[in-house]
């Protein structure tokens, strides 16, 4: 992934290479970075310029540096979208519905594109995350994290880096709302089966390389979520 830098290169050149990897989609929102030692070895640099570069990337909003844990790539839309939108949406059912409507537009296109462009690795990831979701439901868990990963995997399978970053932010906005809504939804056991069936239909359509079927499956799922949210849930 990384290419060795000639000697006497400055930290800004490390920054440029890292941003290039993010732009190319080789580093995606949520991806963990290798350790400082591993990155330094691959780049052929010492730790000081690398640390300076990582700090710069953090200040620019490209990564999050975590103490005693691996640093992660952030959505480049976080600063411009997530913070103000989170405040607007929190506690406002009408705004959550509007967010779902935006997801319908983006995700119906993404599902169709994913059915055409997904690699075998993309499809395997979707299958694995679906199994995680199924296990969560069987264990009487809400499955919110697995659900977010499932839908984000669809966006990633479009091979569109910009859309992947935007999707990461949009799905993060729904995370807490989903948690509250599912606590209400799962008082009826049949809703778990319905959600599993809907996710499986999406997975199957993408695996079968059927764009129209994938688009319809996503819209069926999001229409159901919106309908249930409007009629039953309260934030």
Structural description of this entry:
By secondary structure, the chain is mainly alpha-helical. The chain folds into two domains: 11-73, Winged helix-like DNA-binding domain superfamily/Winged helix DNA-binding domain (Arc Repressor Mutant, subunit A, Orthogonal Bundle), CATH 1.10.10.10; 78-232, Four Helix Bundle (Hemerythrin (Met), subunit A), CATH 1.20.120. Helices cover 72% and strands 2% of the residues. It contains ten helices and two strands, in the order αααββααααααα. It has helices at 11-23, 36-43, 47-60, 78-89, 93-117, 120-138, 144-156, 161-185, 190-207, 211-232; strands spanning 63-64, 72-73. It has a two-stranded antiparallel sheet. A hairpin with a 7-residue loop joins strand 1 and strand 2. Helix 5 (93-117) crosses helix 7 (144-156). The chain is globular and about 55 Å long.
Count of spatially separate domains = 2
* String of helices and strands: HHHEEHHHHHHH
Give the CATH architecture of the largest domain: Up-down Bundle
Report the count of strand segments: 2
Helix content: over 70%
Number of helices: 10
CATH topology of the largest domain: Four Helix Bundle (Hemerythrin (Met), subunit A)
The pLDDT mean sits at 83
Output the strand order for the largest sheet: 1-2
Task: Identify the CATH homologous superfamily of the largest domain.
Answer: GntR ligand-binding domain-like
Give me the secondary-structure category: mainly alpha
Question: Percent of residues in beta strands?
Answer: under 5%
How large, in whole angstroms, is the Cα Rg?
A: 20 Å
Briefly, what CATH class of the largest domain? Mainly Alpha
Strand count, sense and closure of the main sheet? 2 strands, antiparallel
> What best-fitting shape do the alpha-carbon axes yield?
globular
